[in-house]
Every structure is written in C-alpha cells, then in structure tokens.
Amino acid sequence: MKIASVESFGNADVALVRVRTDDGAEGWGQVAPYHADITAHVLHRQIAPHALGRDAADIESLADRIPELEHKFPGSHLYRALAGFDTALWDLRGKVQGKSVSSLLGGDARRFRAYASSIRRDITPEHEAARLVGLRELHSFDAFKVRIGKECGHDEDEWPGRTQAVIETVRGALGDDAALLVDANSCYTPAKAIEVGRMLEQHGVTHFEEPCPYWELEWTREVTHALQLDVAGGEQDWDPRVWRTMVETRAVDVVQPDVCYVGGFTRALRVASLAEAEGLPCTPHSANHSLVLVFALHLQAAIGNPGPYVEFSIEPDADYPWQVGMYEPRPEVVEGKVALPEGPGWGVESHPSGSRAPSTGSAGSTEVDGFTSGVHMQPPETATTVRVEGGTTLTTDGPFAEIKEAIGGYCFSEANDLDAAVELASRIPAASMGGAARCARSWSGSGTPASRPGHFPKPSRAARASSVCASAA
Amino acid sequence: MKIASVESFGNADVALVRVRTDDGAEGWGQVAPYHADITAHVLHRQIAPHALGRDAADIESLADRIPELEHKFPGSHLYRALAGFDTALWDLRGKVQGKSVSSLLGGDARRFRAYASSIRRDITPEHEAARLVGLRELHSFDAFKVRIGKECGHDEDEWPGRTQAVIETVRGALGDDAALLVDANSCYTPAKAIEVGRMLEQHGVTHFEEPCPYWELEWTREVTHALQLDVAGGEQDWDPRVWRTMVETRAVDVVQPDVCYVGGFTRALRVASLAEAEGLPCTPHSANHSLVLVFALHLQAAIGNPGPYVEFSIEPDADYPWQVGMYEPRPEVVEGKVALPEGPGWGVESHPSGSRAPSTGSAGSTEVDGFTSGVHMQPPETATTVRVEGGTTLTTDGPFAEIKEAIGGYCFSEANDLDAAVELASRIPAASMGGAARCARSWSGSGTPASRPGHFPKPSRAARASSVCASAA
After folding, report:
1. Which candidate, A267, A438, A368, places its Cα nearest to that of A22?
2. What end-to-end distance do the CA atoms of chain B give, in Å?
3. ipTM above 0.90, yes or no
4. pLDDT tens-place string over residues A417-466
5. Nearest CB to A77 within list B73, B186, B242
6. Which residue, A177, A229, B81, B356, is most buried by CB atoms nearer than 10 A?
C-alpha cells in the first residue's frame, strides 16, 4: 500500500489533501486554514517528497520521521502541512478497514455536547447576548464562549469596558444555568488576567482560554495557579517540548490542541495522551467548520480524557466563505449536541472544488520514483452550477463571473446595506434567487452592518466573501 | 522614514530583500536559505503587510510586533522571512547613519579567527584530512570542524567506524595544536553521545555541536553536564521560550543562533544577550557564504560574549551555487582570520540578479496605502554577461542558455569526469574559458568525483550547479 500521490485542492484560505496508494485506496485530509496556499507549497515541497513510495499504513512513523527530515524548519507552517497529509492517511486507514477513525481507536461516543463559540469582538454586548439567546432557541445550546479583551492586546480591551459588559450582559440574558466560557486570545499580563479572572469567577465563568500571550508559559501558569476556574490553552502549539512543559508544569488546566495546527491527528492524540497521564482534560480547538471540526469530533470520541464539550463556531458562513461546500454532511447542532459523522474514515465526502475563494499560485509538482505530488488549481470561473450555503444547489445558465457579480454585488460590496442588498438581489437570475435570499438572511442574522462596529469588509474581503454564495459543484 | 516597499530577489535557494523608505533610503537583507521561494511568500504575505507604512527606524518594535500579529504561525518559516526584513532594516539604519551595523552597537573588532567548517559526511577520513591540511596551507586556519555521526541518525554512523576514524585521521594530520570541533547534527541518544564525547575528549576535541536531537533539550543537557568539552547548539531555534530554557538550564555551553533562522539580527542580539547574562559565549551559526556569514561577523563584533571563532564554510561553490554572486566583497580568510566588510550597513553591495539558481513561483504582491511588497523574478536566461565564481566577470555574445550548456556540460553533468570536463571546456567560447577553468579547479579541489562516495549529483542538481559559473551581471 505505497503512497502513490499527494494532491491538494485549495486556495489561500483552505486546502483539502488527497492521498492515493498504488493499490487504489485513497483518503482525504485537510491542511490548516489561512494562508493555505503557502501551506500547500510546504506540503508538496517538504512533506510529500518524504512520503511518496512509503507505506500508507505507517502513519505514526511518518508523523515522526518527516519532521526529522525537515528539522531545519521547526514550526507552524510545516506542521500545518503535515496535518493535511496525516489526516488523509487516517481517512485512508479507516476506509481500508471499513471503520470510522474514532472506531479504529475504540471510541464509541457518537454525540457530543457542543459549546456555541463566538469568534467576534467587534460586537456589542447586547448584540452578542441577543444572538446567543437566539441560537439557544434554535439549537438548545447550554454552553457558550465569548471573546474578552483584545487579541494580543497588551492588557487593552477591544473598547473600554467591553469585557465586563459582555460578561454581565450575556450572563444576564442566558441566566445562571448556562455554562459560560471566555477566550482572551493572549491579551493579558498575569496581574491583569488574575484581576479579570476574579470578575469572571464572580459571574460563574468556568473556562478562561489563553489569558496571557500563549508564548509566555510562565505567565499562564501564574494565572492558572491563582484562579479557581479552568485556564485553557495550546491551540497554536505544535512543539512537543512546549506541550511537555505545559502539561508537566500544569501551566493550564485544559489542553486545547488543534488537529490542524499541531500537525495532524497522530500528534493531537499524543498531546491528549500526555495530558491524560497528568490528569488533564483535552478540549480540542475547532474554531471553524472546515474539516478541523470533524477531526475534533473524532478526537473527542477516541481519547480517554475528553473535555465536557466540543467547540462549535456560530459565525455565519458569510464571514467564513471558504468553509462552505468543502465536504458533507456538515455537522449540525441538535438539542445542544453535535453528531459524529457516520461511515468509514472521517465519515464525510470531500468536495475538492467546493470552496471557491480565489486561488493563488501553484506549488508545482514533485515526482519520486514515478509517484507524484502536486496542486490542483481551482477550476476556472466558468462553472454554470451554483451551490449556495446550506447545501441548496441551483443551476443557472450564466457564467460564474456574472453570478458572482450579481450575488456579490448586494450583500458584501461597498453598499453594506441590507435594503440595497435586497434591491440588488432582485437583479439576480430567478434560478439563483434562493441563494441570494439565503445570503441576505445570513448577513441579516448577524445584525445589519451598521450595528457591527469596525466590521466593514474591505474590497478584497468583499470579493472573497461574495464567493461564499456560489461554488462550483 | 516610512517603509514604502519590501521586495525580494531570489529563487528556491536564497532570496535577498530590499526595503525602501518614502524618503529614498534603502537597505538590503536576506531571508534564510533553502526553500527561500516559500519564505518569500511568507515575507510578502505575512511580514510586509504589517510593515508597509511603518517607521523603518522602529526595528525592535517591528521585530516584536510582527510575530504577535502572526501568532497563529509560530515557527521557522515565519522567522526565516522576518530575518530578511529585519536584516534589511539594519542595513538601512547603518546606511542612514553612515555606520556599519556593528559600529551602531559599539563594536570595534574588525578581524575574527575563523574555523574551517566542513559540511560533508560523504567524505572519507583521509580525504577530509587532506583537504583540511590543504586549506591550512592556503589560509592558515588553526581551527577546524568536521561532521560526525549521521544527521538525525538515531545513533548510527554515516558508515560503520567513520566517526572514530575521521577524528583520529584528522587529528593525526593536523597535529595537536589545531583546535578541533565536531558537529553531530542531532545524531545521538545521551548515552551514545557521552560515549562518543569521551572519545572526542581523548583526541582534544573542544566543541561538540548538537550531540542529540536538538528538540530533546533534556538529552542535550544530560550530555553537557556529563562531558568536559563544550557542548554547543541552537542553530535551528527561533522560539524565545526554548532559548530561555536552553540558557537558564544550561542545556548547552555555547549558544549558536543563526541570524537568518532566529528571525534576524535583532533577535540574534537578544539570544546573545540572554546567554551573556548567564555567562555563556555565543558562536553564531553561519554554515554558508550567503549574507548570513556577514551577519554573523557583525554579530560577533557587536556582542559582549563572542565565542573564540566564526564559522567559515569550506565547501566549494560548486556544491552551493546559489551563494555565488549574491553580494561583494565576499569575506575571505587570510592568516586564519576573516575581516568584517567595511562601509555603512553590512558593508557589502548586494547583487539581486547574482544568484542564478532556477526561479520558482511568484509570491504575488501586496499593497498597503500605496506602499508595495512583491517579488522580483529572476531575469530571463538571455543575459549576455557571465560572472564566474571568484568575481571575474566575462562577457560573451552567446545567450545564457548556450553558455550554461557549455559550462554545465563538463563539470556537473552525468559525465562527472574531470578529463571529460577538460575536453568539454575546450568547446567553451574563448571569452569564458576563465570561468570554465575555475569550475574545473573547484571541482578538482574537492577531489575527483570517484573519491566522493555517494556524491553523484542528480540531473536536477547538475542543472542547478551549472549555474554557479554563469550569473547575470
């Protein structure tokens, strides 16, 4: 079962990876999102050459050996690429054995409590509370995470008073029974984090994520030891040295490996195991609806120390267009719980031309003993089928560029105005009106643009966002 | 003095970086070699956007802030790119103030003892000893470093018995007065490293570099504490957390930051300073003749705890074609010492079209408020001027491709035969004969191909190597 090809299908936001063997087996994985085209270069130039011709069953030894062979490049880009390769091998292993990835490891959990994870700071406390209440009505969430402080903020708040206000307002709106989590994204010095932490504890917050710059482990440890609530962290970390120190010195109460950032499923399992040996739970980071969410579900099912819930992003697809159409079925939250996709491997079907953010560059190709590694560019923008978010597929006779212009023109362009969007939607061909309406709702669901301070997409973002609505089938 | 443009000039092996300000100042730096085209993507996509429009004088705050803004990508690729930007800013600062970089920091050393650094393991002990003796005759080196074990070798030797033999043979050939250093490149477990270390001590070796996998800091510490000789390490490390642990726990006796791997001159200075506070010397890693060697010389001149010598690669340009023609003057060893280039900034003139390894890909361009960041591709292969290694410039009427074919045909092609090379050299246009002869000597200087086990360049390498002899002026 020799690895015969390593392919990536993606763009600047995200890339799927397909590994095929010489006997016809195949598996799908995904590199980490963001600058994924650069990661694809790394995959094809620094991962695949060491993998082609090797036995696809040797996942663990490949996960060890490849970073050794690229030991001059210790860091995130390498592990983001390795994750794409490693997760494809796990899918392949599952498919060959006719088992889901978690079942391969003896996991039998099938539904997981999900926490509704807000990614936004550019949102007023009232608006945040309103949408969390709305989502609870729709999906019966009983756990919620909001953002506090400012990302890498050096003790600054996103705007003065927001942190205290968002905690008070959200707690007031959700009541005392809701589990409330927060994420400070590396904002605070230890003294400030402890001060904020005491306030959080007074409001029954139970999970304080990344209180300090994550690279200041000693700071984080100081906060962890000073507070009663759980301090969590580790999402960006890949270095086993750092994980060991983090766990052994109990710098956090909860480890949060991201399957795509840590270098894949194999290495995420190791982090969970390391934490389990020290009695710490593992709540993986899965802050978007790309395959990382599916990987996180399998991880939770497979390990002995899963945290109490799985992270489930509540941000609209309009803000993360690239996560749309990559695979199906997409996990959904029903009665506060999210189900593990069923079936062999990851249990999902990947759609390599699904995500339609603009393509950039090519990573070229590599050939080793007749085996190949290379990038598949996005198809040209002449597709005549449109898939809108949520899975509805619509066909139109117009070329993609026209549809893009029509759909993109109303909800993400410089107008930034719901009325203008509705007017523009009327100009969209009848066949794709459903998509247009859905986009409008998605946007509306996050409030009108005017109520989102600081959230006026730049043209480049608008151009990207417009593609959320239309993806080649 | 706002940063108005960030440009890179390079290829898959190495890339120069030019930063220009809105008032016309400019500086040149360099990203780390190897997969430098990928690093250029990172530079233009993940470094430059945070830098354009900022004050070029704020080097230290940019070196702090940019990794924060890219904190989802902690690792080598990011710091390799940052190094290109940071070193360009230091050159710019020096040029604006009319001082060399080391003088900006109060350094006044001008000549440094160099150690002759062998990079090769595919060389017999006899051949290695012979070339070290030859180099001593030519340049009066009194310190030499050879490679032992196998890179990331899991206790294996490059071939059975080579390590012991190369130490005995080289020591025998050089006599007892020569300083002898070794590099194990992450080969050994602690027990084996200590066993090898005792043998090294018996032969008067004083510097044992990277005895264990460098990412196993505890292993390295165990070896450091067990042996009398100096254990050195750190070349691949960029993470300040790791440097702190390495220094504070005295995992090594000598720190070896690489200016290009660690994220630039600013961050290399910090590592040196951290080590100085703990009483450890700093001997920077500079294993090739790209600008990293110049950066290392300035570092040694600027810091308070320089090690006793500077690393000076003895490998022929034929094996590192991309390091030829990038800048001048190239540092040379005279009487065992290498001089700091004189003049403002780094004291060298960069030649953006000098290094002629094949170009791959484009990182596209970025624009922020009218300021730009982008890649300059190599000029097409129609140059009519040829620069041969060593600095001689020859002009010919033929297009580059013909010259390349002629020069590349004899010394690096599948023939791999010195006689055939000389025969082929006769076919080269008279005007470029000097270059041909020089290439032949360079190859010959490392012994005939037949005496270099395992060192038969593949066609792709041959094609690259051929470009050493010809570079567009």
Report:
1. A368
2. 31
3. no
4. 334 334 444 444 333 333 332 232 222 222 223 222 222 222 222 222 22
5. B73
6. B81
